[in-house]
Structure formats: structure tokens, C-alpha cells
Amino acid sequence: MVDDLGYGDLSSYGANDLKTPHVDALLSRGMKFTEFYANCPVCSPTRASFLTGRYPELVGVPGVIRTHAHNNWGNLTDDSISIAEVLSHHGYHTALVGKWHLGLKAPDKPNDRGFKHFAGYLGDMMDDYYNHRRHGINYMRLNEDEIEPNGHATDLFTKWACEYISSRKETADPFFLFLAYNAPHTPIQPPKEWLQRVISRAPEMDSKRAGLVALIEHLDEGIGQVTNCLKEHGMLDNTLLVFTSDNGGQVNVGANNGHTRDGKQSMYEGGLKVPTCAVWPGHIAAGSSSARRMITMDLFPTISEAANIKLNHRIDGVSQLDTLLGNSQQEDSRSLFFHRREGGDRYGGLTIQAIRRGDWKLLQNSPFQPLELYNLKEDPLEEHDLARTNIRIFRELSIELRKHIQRGGNVPWQ
């Protein structure tokens, strides 16, 4: 899972000003998804949905978890069951390398939530990719120990992932690795040599865009190294590998979200639609693609079913394994809900939300603005608000959305 990668910021998703050969190679070896959604347009909630297979507001994470209580908008519920706990119970060794962003103290750290090995960063964003601080606090950890590693965070996470993979070669036990890069989240701080490559190749490129392109290309190189580690240890052909982003790209730092409106933080498509693929040699057809609508929380039950694990607790996500395997799968008629709580003058501690049902989408992108209604099949850029002209659909979706908001309101998050 990468951080803030726009729907159009891979060569394989239409970008013509950057080079992402390693992620593109993954897509060529597996299935590309063209209608995959993050559970939220910001970090923590989507991660909570991946971890638990549930809507984030139903596990206490309606917004971003941060260092300071006055600007913290989530607290993962104690009774949540994580994918790491489930896989660990069924014989998998479990590891998280990289960004956590779901709690800074017990019982909300990775080792408390089923990960036997953690090498990474507890917090949200880093203020600097090299000193790894946030608000002057060091959140880098090796399990429970605070550490002071040297190097760019992307390189460190790549190195630690490869070290973990190497450590599993001597055991027959299966493993589950959640590799969560900070990149290409702000600050846009690629290594200097990577930025120079982009500038030399495309001197006419806007400087803002050049920095982001360099950060993404550096990230792509790291992903290639991890894939090579799997290959070197004879694991690549026996591993299900999923690539996704936690939300859309940040427009004001140069992100490209493809043929969508807006980006990170937004309930418009650019904030929610993300590049995603799955690779599993011998199981998922190389070069395949799917336009089936999926969402981050579907990964938990999909991975569990691939591991022949039957889930016995409540899950909001739906296994998409049949689709991955090229089998017919019952049409998905469910509504998808999106919810975000945030502070500051722009949000005031209130929520924004959306519901997607079929081609219809009802959204509120500001707590101080009315609901908007769009038909995404006819209007993919969400330019023509139909809230006042299609009253029946508006009322149906708004009632359904309110019911879901009430469900989330029943879960403590502070």
C-alpha cells in the first residue's frame, strides 16, 4: 500500500510523463482493476478498513489519527479483529514494514494488533524523509524499540522488507507482509539524484510536478527491489501480491488523478478511486483486467479466502477471489459508503460523506454545503449536479446514507 498515489500517476494508468516499469510489470503479470476505491480519501480510515475488513467509522476511525488530541479524529476499537490476527491464528508469520498510522500507544500499535514483526513508522506523515520526525517526535520503531536509522524512508522500508523476506526462506511456514510506504505523500522529497534524472529527461516539466514524479519513480524502484527479493528466494510464483493506494493523489503538489475530479481529501472520484492490481502466478491470468467495483475493505476477505480461511466474525467487505481467478461472480448490488471526519476551519470537526449505488453517487464534500447527486456513467467528471432534478434517487440515497451515518455514530472514536 502506497500513500497518496493518484489514479493517473502510473504509466499503466495513463501517465506519459513518468516511468514506473516495476509496478507496470506487476500489472502485466496479473489483474488490473479499473474501478477500485479506497474506503476514504485520507490515510487512517482506509488503513483501518484494510486491517479489519470493515467500514472505518464502524471500527472507530472516521478520520485521521494524529499526535495531538485536539486534532485527532479516530481511535481503533479494542474489539476489532485484524487480518494479521486471523492469518497468525492460521499459521502465518505476520509482519508490517512501513507506515502504521492507526495508533501511537498500546493497545493500538502493530504488535498489539497481530503483527509479530514491525519495522517502520507509527505516525502519520513524516516532516522529513531523512530524519523521520513528526512534530519533533521520533516514531520509527523496531517492534517496541525506538530506533534511529539513517537514510530515505522509502529506501529503508524497501531494505527492511527484503530483509524480512530473506528471513522467511529457511522456514516452511507461510508469511503475510503488509508493506506500507510513506511515498509519495508530502513532503515531496525525492533523493536528489532521482530529481536530477527527471529534470535532465524533461527540463520543461513544472518543478512541482518534477519533484512528485521523482518521488514516485524512486518508489517504483523500491517496489521492483522487493519483487526481485521474492524472485531470488523462489517465492514469487507462490505469493499473492496486491498493490494499491490508500487514497487519491494530492492535487496541489502536482498529482495526476486521471479522468476524475479533484483528489486527496475529497469525496469526488479523484479522492477515492485508486490504482490497484493483484498478481498470483498460476491463479490470476497475466494481463487481465476487471471493471468490477471493489473497495479496500474487500481485500481482507479476499486474502482470507485465498488462504482457505473461513471468517467467523462480522465483515463489511466482500471476497472478490472469484473475480481474481477469472471465475464468474454474482453481480455486486451493494451500496458503498464513504465517511470522513476532520478538524480545522474547513471542516470544524464535522463529517463529509458519500454513497455509491450503481451508476449513482450522492456526496457532501463540505459539511457546510448541500448534498450533490451525480450519474457517473453519464457524467464521470461529476460536473452536473442532479440533486434538484432527480428527486426520487436523491431521496432514496440520502435515506440510505443517513442510516449508515447513524451506524457510525454508535461507535466511540475519541
Tell me about this structure.
This protein has helices at 21-29, 43-52, 83-89, 153-167, 192-201, 207-232, 269-272, 299-306, 321-324, 344-347, 391-409, and strands at 31-33, 36-37, 93-99, 117-121, 133-134, 137-138, 140-142, 145-146, 175-180, 241-243, 276-279, 288-290, 294-295, 336-341, 351-357, 360-364, 372-375. By secondary structure, the chain is of the alpha/beta class. It has two domains: 11-324, Alkaline Phosphatase, subunit A, CATH 3.40.720.10; 336-409, Arylsulfatase, C-terminal domain. It has a five-stranded mixed beta sheet with strand order 8-7-4-3-9, sandwiched between helices. It has a four-stranded mixed beta sheet with strand order 10-11-1-12, with helices on one face. β7 (140-142) and β8 form a beta hairpin. The longest helix has 26 residues, at 207-232. It is globular, with a radius of gyration of 20 Å. The model has no long low-confidence stretch (mean pLDDT 97).
Layout of strands and helices, then pairs:
Layout: H1 21-29, E1 31-33, E2 36-37, H2 43-52, H3 83-89, E3 93-99, E4 117-121, E5 133-134, E6 137-138, E7 140-142, E8 145-146, H4 153-167, E9 175-180, H5 192-201, H6 207-232, E10 241-243, H7 269-272, E11 276-279, E12 288-290, E13 294-295, H8 299-306, H9 321-324, E14 336-341, H10 344-347, E15 351-357, E16 360-364, E17 372-375, H11 391-409
Parallel strand pairs: 1-12, 2-13, 3-4, 3-9
Antiparallel strand pairs: 1-11, 4-7, 5-6, 7-8, 10-11, 14-15, 15-16, 16-17
